[in-house]
User: What shape does this take?
Amino acid sequence: MRLLWLINFFVLLSSPLLYAESLSCPHGVGVPAAHSWEELKQREQAVAAYAARCERDAHYLAWHGALLNALNRPHDAADRLERALLLNPELMVAKIDYAEALTSLGETRAARQLLQEVLARPDLPPHLESVLQTRYKALGHIWLSRAYLTSRLGYDSNLTSAPRIDRLTLTLPDGNLPLLLAESYRRQSGLTASLEFNGDLSHPLDSGGSLLFYGDMRLRHSPSVRGVDYAQIDTVAAYLHPNTLGDALLSVGSSFLHYNGETLYRSARISLAQDWQWADCRPRVGWDSEWRQYPQTPELDGRFAALSVGLSCHHQARTSFILRAGRDDAARRRAGGGQWRLEARAAASWPLAGGVLDTDLNYSLQRDDRSYSPLLANGLARRVQRWTARAEYRYPLSRHWQALGSIEVSRQNANLELFDVNSHAFSIGVRRTW
Assistant: This one.
């Protein structure tokens, strides 16, 4: 990051008009390395107060982006710097800062293209050319990594994902028979402690593509309820290839869930997707297939294949939407047979009161091919709808530490009462980033 500060300083010395003072919108004069993180944060908050008034001022947006880069907020920095360049494509400092933000986000191909444009400019100060040349060459060979370690304490109203009912009614030829569910199958609530590790790694290739790797591990422990601890691991490896339409993505992944001392679930999947640029958004179409295994209940094994369409946009807020429809075919005879599924997800993230608010809304609809059981509702085929809403607020405590607070509400409704499930949870925690 000190390199970025030096680049800003030298460019400003050579081109003093890049950040001219304005009576209406604040324009910066570089990001001095001597400033502490707290001073930079206070300055960024003061500059952010002018966002509504100055959203059409390229120099203001570039200055705000430089401050956000210095605060290790590359997503927000990229948004401001991209808008600055749309208003003034020749703003050299904005291009250099934008390349820095894109590098932090793993988009090294776009970062190299920006640096290449800057290096080709006849007005590039001579003392900057060698610095930028070194950085440009390095981007073709480096591995970029990010890691997050999160610790949470919270409460969950339904640790066992149990149904709302405590009695189940069976439909028999001679009439209905109510049964009391065993205690272990009823809803149990309690406090939780969790530890999460997320990391990603990317590497640009000479062909213009990139290799991408992602890993996620979650551990949960409940001190008040026995038998609900779990460990979940997800991994993804992907290849991103540019083409005439945009970018094609091929990925393979796996998931593993260890629950109550046993391997409950594991899966392997492959995905193909194509996206392209459209204004400030990136539409995407894709296909994926997943093989699912349940070692404790092998009759649930199956293969899920789906088509999806999505859209992600990045303006003042980052938003995304994806719609996925597919079929789960059973590997062997199972209750309900095959399943048709429809899934939708909408997510948004925007700055709020010095931090970031992330929201996520998920909906799914599942319909079985045939009767789940002749003993439930006279053999009715199961139909399940599920809504999950989650909000998390992240507030920076320092350059590498954040405080977190989250809340999640889930509602599952079904035409078979055994599958009516409700829950809510909340947590507080801290996150360390690298």
